Amino acid sequence: MTGRSMRLLLLVAFPLLAAFYVLAGSDFDTAYIIPRRLAKLAAMMVGGVAVAVSSIMFQTIAGNRILTPAVMGYESVYLLLQSLLLLFIGTASLHLLGEIGNYAVSILFMLGYSFFLHRWILGHAHRDIYFPLLVGLLLTMVIGTFTHFIQLKISPGEFAIFQGFALASFEGISPMRLAFSAVFTGAVCVLVWKTLPYLDVIALGREQATSLGVDYQRHVRFLLALVAILVAVSTSLLGPTAFMGIFVANTAYLLAGNFRHRVLLPLGSVVAAVMFMVAQLMVEHVFNYKTTIGILVNLACGAWFLVLVARPRTDL
């Protein structure tokens, strides 16, 4: 099957799968079941766009296909922030900051980490993909360990709240959080769309982009800030998705057949949304809510990541 045929199949399957998810077993209950499923479907769309766009952009900046924001510790930084808020402020942080305040603090915190990542890691990585990968994994482990240490210091009630931040799920997403996530994601996508020509040039590498007249440092710093915002939005909306970005991005590369971001970003967004829908259908109809979407997604995408790392390639 050619890449064009696979793209057409995906585009046809996407609306059919969405309709099946919303209507299957609903008895056309427009008072509760269908509106609830439509809200979950909207969250899948927003989260899929955020995960796909941030992952593909980050891989373009890093210059390889096995680095994602999750591997580089973005999600761990978000969870560290939430644990620190619970440690120092307690459950009052939920009322003190509110959903808007938590969004703002999370985005600012992750923007700071993004600047650190660019200044001290990617800025010295050049063509060596192993250095940023190993340092990113190390940072993820260190931040995760510190987060676990903080969990031992908070109360059981606060820990239960933290688990809500740490587990990827579409259950209990408030309309306000979904609305703000959609606004942030839409605004970032508009900015990304305006920088598509620069993204295509940056994908050629630092030296080539500079020789073509692109202000590499300024554009990369700006794009990393957009990645940080998208990761903050997707993680706060859904929870950590770990290696999902690797699967989504590489599937988009396979289906697109080229490296133009005008094609890659929408295609990756559809792949991510379809994967969320399939995982959610399995949670509801196969496992009967005895597992979570995060476990299924991380299991499948983690295996895909191991295959990518183990497979001998020279174009990562």
Indicate the mean pLDDT.
Answer: 82
User: What's the SSE pattern?
Assistant: HHHHHHHHHHHHH
The unreliable regions are none
Major β-sheet profile: none
Number of helices: 13
Q: What is the helical fraction, as a range of percent?
A: over 70%
**Helix/strand structural class:** mainly alpha
Shape: globular
Count every beta strand, where a strand is a DSSP E run of 2 or more residues.
0
Structure characteristics:
single chain; 316 residues; 13 helices; globular
Please provide a written account of the structure.
The protein is 76% helix and 0% strand. The protein has helices spanning 3-23, 33-62, 74-88, 92-120, 130-151, 156-166, 175-194, 196-202, 206-211, 216-238, 244-256, 261-286, 293-310. The two termini are 24 Å apart. The mean pLDDT is 82.
Task: Give a quick summary of the entry.
With about 325 residues, the chain is mostly helical.
Write the layout of secondary structure elements.
Blueprint: H1 3-23, H2 33-62, H3 74-88, H4 92-120, H5 130-151, H6 156-166, H7 175-194, H8 196-202, H9 206-211, H10 216-238, H11 244-256, H12 261-286, H13 293-310
Helix pairs in contact: 1-2, 1-12, 2-7, 2-10, 2-11, 2-12, 3-4, 3-5, 3-6, 4-10, 7-10, 11-12, 11-13
